[in-house]
Amino acid sequence: MADDPARTLALLWRVEQPAGTRGPRRGLVLDDVVAHATALADAGGADGLAGLTVRALAKDLGVAPMTLYTYVPGRDDLADLVVDAAYAAMARRDTTGRPWRERLTAVAEENRALHRDHPWTARVDPGRPVLGPGETAKYEHELAAFDELAESAGLDDVDRDAALTFLLDVTRAAALVEQQSADGSHGAAWWAARAPVLAQVLDPGRYPRAVRVGAAAGAAQDSARDPDRAWRFGLARALDGLAALIS
Amino acid sequence: MADDPARTLALLWRVEQPAGTRGPRRGLVLDDVVAHATALADAGGADGLAGLTVRALAKDLGVAPMTLYTYVPGRDDLADLVVDAAYAAMARRDTTGRPWRERLTAVAEENRALHRDHPWTARVDPGRPVLGPGETAKYEHELAAFDELAESAGLDDVDRDAALTFLLDVTRAAALVEQQSADGSHGAAWWAARAPVLAQVLDPGRYPRAVRVGAAAGAAQDSARDPDRAWRFGLARALDGLAALIS
DNA sequence: TCCGTACGCTGTACAACGTACGCCGTACAG
DNA sequence: CTGTACGGCGTACGTTGTACAGCGTACGGA
């Protein structure tokens, strides 16, 4: 692996190399590689990106593992490409002129859909920007949704970025909760396996709130009665928190 | 590995086994193993938990790698023990009787300190509860901080849990931002390596807000001029958002 | 006192993983 | 026609977690 940031960025932005014409024609196209990688990550569920394997992807493409290294410097760059492609493929509602709450809600819901379609997007390191065209387009679109709020509240650019980050953080966290309700990984069976020891060890006298609230929260999450209650709660809290910026 | 949840929980809560007295005495104590593992994770920086290796820990303890498996069923359980120990070791301010904003601020700051002392705690999967004594004590303590707010706002138990989750999510996200300002991983050198390609590819006409805001946010984060600006922003937004629950 | 046995410890080994290296064959440039 | 640049990939190495079986210890029962 080269570990060369410039190379990775060029790949993300599809900046073509001089590309000498010698040798055999390429058997694949980068976009196909990324598309298959995305499909593989989606099939892998929540830890899809982590489970995305060079060998598995190669087999999927009918090619030897090492062949992929003529398209991509290494596995990490592949992950970046997959993430950026997911960002690029997001549907983006044009809410120009609408009230800021509606605009921010649209942004949150677009990201919620992203996390639902590609569960692994909720687990990408938020501190490690990809800086690809997809992420940039997403960033531009989402910053635009803050135009009215930024003006009303007198937000400077740093605060505008912080406000967007805040909204996306809350959205991602809610999406994570939603996921484990959906995939049933914390369903009745999960709790049943732990109940005996917990019953022996969780003293309601010592942890009164934890036992009571934990049971209520677990039950609410398990029963899909109101699956997006946590979602609505987080979104409403975030919007109200931002609304307080308007003096 | 047994992958037995009951076994893991028993380990977390230190529920002793019958413990036959035959054979050689044990050369280690579980708490020592966990302590050394914590030190190793701390030394590993942000990806400390991921970088925590059975072999490295064994060498650290002066023991063969496989020996650790007589103390712990597998690496994942080790990670759970380390996380729960970090939770258990947190300082917890008693803010009983104080106004709810002060109580919630204390909770947020305690978690901020946790993420600062052990950067890897900001990267544990929030959807995968450990259910150990440390996490339980932390949960109880933090739920208690919501007593006044829950009463004033008429929160039921499910909402109280959601509100705590909300506050911790925001705290964790802010801690992540703070980390990469601190460790300089996104410092001038990081940007310098990417600047040439970005200059070639980031069209300010096409991405006006992204270029402008991104530059401002990047500069603000790079210069440690105001390192906890994002932190204060997120905390204030979260508290204001929760305050709106009080009709 | 002696031995069977339970149990702590560990050397070896295997299946994943990412990927460095070098060979092979292709197909264009001269 | 030939030299060479380049795509494809077989092999192999280092690193990960951990299954398994052997070794030696030290107690319980005779």
What does this structure look like?
- 2 copies of one chain form a homodimer.
- Chain A is mainly alpha-helical and 247 residues long.
- Chain A has 3 domains: 5-87, Homeodomain-like (Arc Repressor Mutant, subunit A, Orthogonal Bundle), CATH 1.10.10; 94-183 and 228-243, no CATH class; 188-221, no CATH class.
- Helix content of chain A is 63%, strand content 0%.
- Chain A is built from 12 helices and no strands.
- Chain A has helices spanning 5-12, 30-43, 48-51, 54-61, 75-88, 100-117, 133-144, 147-153, 157-182, 188-201, 208-222, 229-243.
- The longest helix of chain A is centred in the C-terminal third of the chain and has 26 residues, at 157-182.
- The first copy, chain A, is flat.
- The model of chain A has no long low-confidence stretch (mean pLDDT 92).
- Chain A binds a DNA duplex (30 and 30 nucleotides) through residues 1, 20-27, 53-55, 63-67, 69-70, 74-75.
Most extensive interface, chain pair and sizes: A-B, 70 and 70 residues
Q: How many structurally independent domains of chain A?
A: 3
Give the fraction of residues assigned to helices of chain A.
Answer: 55-70%
Give me the count of strands of chain A.
Answer: 0
Shape of chain A: flat
Assembly type: homodimer
**CA-atom Rg of chain A in angstroms:** 22 Å
Order of helices and strands of chain A: HHHHHHHHHHHH
Unreliable sequence segments of chain A: none
* Terminal residue distance of chain A: 52 Å
Strand content of chain A: under 5%
The main β sheet of chain A shows up as: none
Q: How confident is the prediction overall: mean pLDDT of chain A?
A: 92
The helix-and-strand class of chain A reads: mainly alpha
Tally the helices of chain A.
12
Domain Tetracycline repressor TetR C-terminal (chains A, B): 98-245
Organism (chains A, B): Actinomycetospora aeridis
Keywords (chains A, B): Transcription, Transcription regulation
Protein name (chains A, B): TetR/AcrR family transcriptional regulator C-terminal domain-containing protein
